[in-house]
Amino acid sequence: MALLGQDCERPSGETAWTILDAANDLGDTVTVDACRRVIDADLRGDTPATSDMAVLSAFFG
């Protein structure tokens, strides 16, 4: 797992959708909210917040 702040591949919008489904099933509202923000940023073509990306990266870690 890469450390925060290092240049690494970030989960794509598609990956965020997958994590969103799993987090919904588990009732993980923090991860659900982060996924929604990442998906919104991806749809706008923006860079998601580092903190949201950390939540997504840590979900399966």
Automatic annotation (TrEMBL):
Organism domain of life: Bacteria
Protein name: Uncharacterized protein
Species assigned in the record: Bradyrhizobium australiense
